Hints:
By secondary structure, the protein is mainly α. 69% of the residues lie in helices and 2% in strands. The protein contains 15 helices and 2 strands. A two-stranded antiparallel ribbon has the order 1-2. Helix 1 packs parallel to helix 12, helix 6 packs across helix 8 and helix 12 (322-344) crosses helix 13.
Amino acid sequence: MSGTHIPAIxxxxxxxxxxxxxxxxxxxxxxxxxxxxxxxxxxxxEMFPGLRDIASPSVYYQLLAFGTGFxxxxxxxxxxxxxxxxxxxxxxxxxxxxxxxxxxxxxxPWRAYAIDRLTRLWTVLIPALxxxxxxxxxxxxxxxxxxxxxxxxxxxxxxxxxxxxGLQTVDVDNFGGNYALWSLANETWYYIQFPLLLIMFTSRxxxxxxxxxxxLLVLGTSLxxxxxxxxxxxxxxxxxxxxxxxxxxxxxxxxxxxxVASSIYFRLRGSNDDLNPESFLQxxxxxxxxxxxxxxxxxxxxxxxxxxxxxxxLAHTLSEFSFTLYVTHIPVxxxxxxxxxxTFGRDRLVPDAPLAYAVYAGMLLTLLATxxxxxxxxxxxxxxxxxxxxxxxxxxPQRTSMASSSMK
Length: 408
């Protein structure tokens, strides 16, 4: 394509979710780097004082603070990618069901979707919550001899169960003080709201449409405003998974420059704390060019050169255990701080000591190694768990009809 190619926008009946396209490669890379960014940002915040609390910060610390200051944008990327992959996958399932059966309300796609989402979440989340509990016991925060069911206790059984079903930040605390888990509440409710939205607009039954609309209304008014508001970004990801934009390299490079520039601008001038109504507009402005850029990369991506193969391997490796890294890095940081306090009499690093940055790097590698080990033990078996659950829940053939036909 030439650099002056006039962009053309196409709506696709099926989302292209295979791993051969440029957008799939970039999505994998963004997933991995976003999880790494969140882990690095939280580690820096836990181990070093805040930049504003230092009178004359060194250049090294300013660079570290800037480089690990994109956690807000990283979570936005998670929501966009989740909408693109999860929403696009469900749309594809429904399209196949409609084509093969002619029924818009077939139960099979919805059951498969529910199993996929639950196994995806719980295969990673249950071990992470158990790790959090183990760290609480090891650091003398939790007394294993006492059972607690109070929602006021972040280590209670109620908090454990609530975090499994997305009630953290809604009715219970993040389990064990693992504050990275707040975004999983958003994800869980988006997994529920999206199918309800589809039923409301596509079901042939007025009763189902009305029930879906009623449940959506209740959720929209009951959940925290930030969860409801950021569902719009998740939906944008799902919508753009069906958009293909054909354009030249010049337009694509311009979009990439806008994405990078807006990310840096909002890092320096925008809201970089929680995702809330005040930060929604900036995140929408950041999301639109990013999704548009992804939509220009639907062509197959060549990985014949050595650098491209290396990038593809890095993207695949990081994305594989990105979810595990996201949910396990906080308990590991808490354990590392406890070990530092016990061994060296302090649990924080000094920003003006060069050795501190080497220690920080070693701790970050520890987070990655622990996440990779947890991934190998649990998350890598998600498909096996999913297949087992599907086998258990698979509808059995009706014996009565078979018996009656044999008697004729």
